[in-house]
Amino acid sequence: MRDRRRTLFLFGSVAATFLSDTTTTHAYYTNVYGDELRSCSSDGTALTGFTRTGYCVDRNDDAGSHHICIDLSSSTTRGGGNFCDVTGQSDWCDQEAPCHDDADQNCPIWNWCVCQWAFASYLENAGGCDYVQDVVCDAINMEAVEAYRRQSQSKYANALRCIEERCNIQAGRFSLGDALLPSHAFPLTVLLLSALTVAILGLKKWNGTHTHSESDTTDYVSYQAA
């Protein structure tokens, strides 16, 4: 019986850990169209992303929420400055960084994941949506849209409106459902959740039919510690 309990415990732990890890990857995010998030950077250009995977995704320590993919090589519609100039940063926009396809080589920074809050300030300081560089719509993380919608300041409403205009999306089309897991992620998620449920139910059934002894408890604690 102890072997069965160990197996169920291990199975549940692995399933939970795997589910937690995989939901931080790009496959579990959508872009502003509700489709699978696309890579922001590409071969021949510098590798971008807070996680340096090419995708505008993050982890909990990314306070800047680098969800907006912007084409730093593009010129502005009405002659405004580039992202670095307008936001008062050093001019890293025109520099090089390790390549998307070869970390041992440097490539020009082209499409880049920028902070969603800095993007809103960029719009404000540049004079509006017509004065900023191009955005790469299919690589913009829907998380940015949801973050803007939760804010009351006009600068974030303007940032949302700019994304709608640049990406040719009908105003008000965004909904909370667009930020949920994309359809292609459901099968794996359902499988893992089912496995975790089976493990939990198995443990409950075992606990209800088995009387613990002192040796059982000691063995269980030792297994957890291992």
UniProtKB/TrEMBL annotation:
- Per its UniProt entry, which superkingdom is the organism in? Eukaryota
Q: Which InterPro entries match?
A: DUF2237
Transmembrane annotation, as ranges: 185-203
Has the keyword Transmembrane been applied to this entry? Answer: yes
The protein depicted here goes by the name Uncharacterized protein
| Sorted UniProt keywords | Membrane, Signal, Transmembrane, Transmembrane helix
Q: Where is the signal peptide?
A: 1-27
